[in-house]
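User: Please predict the structure of the protein below. I'd like the answer in structure-token form so I can feed it into my own downstream comparison script.

Assistant: Understood. Taking the following sequence of 100 residues as input:
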Amino acid sequence: MRIIGGIIAILIAVWFYRTAESKGAEPFPWAFAGAIFYYIPMGLWTWLINPMLKNPHMTSSGPSMLAGLGPTMAGIVIVVLVHQFVLLKIKPPQNPGAGE
């Protein structure tokens, strides 16, 4: 699962990088922020929710598939929401000769 998470983090960083380029913003901080916003929910899920899912008193069949895929899915959902929120806040680049 860690390899999949690393590949997803790279794809998210590239996605944020290209978005920043298209909007005329600095691409490297965007790429870094994308990776960070992916890993933060993954870490929180792993430390807070997975112990509850793996607790034998809370589930009858032991660790579930949600315990394995949950952090990755949480990271992806948060990153998509952050990306869309940032796109709403950023202004498109202005072309100096477009209004003439």
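That's the full token string. The CA atoms of residues 44 and 72 lie 11 Å apart.
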